[in-house]
Amino acid sequence: MFHGKPCWFELTTAPARLEDARAFYGQVFGWSVEDAGMPDFTYLLASDGGDKVAGLMQAMPECAELPPHWLIYLDVDDCDAAAEKIALLGGRVIKVPADIPGTGRFAVAADPQGAVFGLLQPLPMQPQPPVESGAWNQRKEGHGNWIELSSSDPVAGLDFYTELFGWTAGQAMDMGEMGSYQLFAWNGADIGGMMGLGQAPVPSWLPYFGVNGVDAAIGRIRAAGGEILHGPVEVPGSAFIAVARDPQGAHFALVGPKEMSS
Predict the structure, then answer these.
(1) Which of 84, 153, 207, 247 is the most buried (most CB within 10 A)?
(2) In whole angstroms, how far apart are CA 47 and each of 33, 36, 261?
(3) What is the CATH code of the structural domain delimited by 6-122?
(4) In the chain, at which residue ranges do the beta strands (DSSP E only) sit?
(5) Cβ-count burial of 250 within 10 angstroms (0-12 exposed, 13-18 middle, 19+ buried)?
(6) CA torsion 248→253→257→262, rounded to 10°?
(7) How does DSSP classify residue 134?
(8) Strand pairing report for 44-48 and 51-58
């Protein structure tokens, strides 16, 4: 029913820095962060306004060399079928489908250009939750609001993701020397954009979280030890964005009004 909708955001931070990440994002977004009680490793769940919005974990020993990063998960009707389709479309399945007790079935994959993303097939729920529930809500602060792909071949990327998730291409905006910024939609609503690599060292996905006042959020990021890499700049729709890096090195972005509103 929600195939192709962004549904979860997961931070993997540096070893022994999980508590630092908890404190940082709690200060920046006001998230309430609690231990999920996983039996084999520590996994923290961040909540905002009663919705679970993100997971936080530290890199496993075998992956300790990976830089801290955010991973965006997309809802799929059938995780195994989606993983098979990824391979057929020229992508790569990094972590084969597996069950998460009490949650559903997940996998991790990369598109043909190398950008990594996750798949999540949630357990059936009765009654079915409303579309605006959960981690993704473009009308609530502290929730996922936008997703952005930087790719070595955004045209091929658009073909791959539209075939996999049923996304539809929207307006392509000319950014001059930076090329085109291609909007894409899920269920009739724009949810993200795709562009060339720009300053990104490798193809990657970037999550945007909604905030009530980008300027104030920037102040909280800096006060908590983070860094602003770009912005704030105005974007269509009278919103402002900023791209940031947390103290451990993971990139994320903000979107919302420039000043806090009541």
Answers:
(1) 207
(2) 6, 11, 22
(3) 3.10.180.10
(4) 6-13, 32-35, 44-48, 51-58, 69-75, 92-100, 104-110, 116-122, 144-150, 168-174, 180-186, 189-195, 204-210, 227-235, 239-245, 251-256
(5) buried
(6) -50
(7) S
(8) antiparallel
SS3 158: helix
Distance CA 157, CA 146 (A): 17
Coil, strand, or helix at residue 101? Answer: coil
- Confirm if 240 and 197 have CB atoms less than 8 A apart: no
Tokens at 77, concatenated? 């009707």
Spatial neighbors of 155 by CB under 8 A, at least 6 apart, are: none
Rounded to whole angstroms, the Cα distance separating 27 from 72 reads: 21
- ∠150-153-157 over CA atoms, to 5°? 75
Separation CA 44–CA 251 (nearest Å)? 19
Q: What percent of the chain has pLDDT over 90?
A: 77
Cis geometry, peptide bond prior to residue 67 (ω within 30 degrees of 0):
no
What is the reported pTM? 0.95
- Residue 224: both structure tokens together: 């908590």
141-175 b/e (C-beta count within 10 Å ≥ 16 → b): bbbbbbbbbbbebbeebbebbeebbebeeeebeee
Per the CB < 8 A criterion, the answer to whether 67 and 11 are in contact is: no
Q: Where are the domains of the chain?
A: 6-122
Residue with tokens 């909540």: 47
Give tens-digit pLDDT for 125-145. Answer: 655 566 667 899 999 999 999
Please provide the size of the chain in residues: 262
For residues 12-17, average pLDDT: 92
Which string of b and e fits 66-93 if b means at least 16 CB within 10 Å? Answer: eebbbbbbbbbeebeebbebbeeeebeb
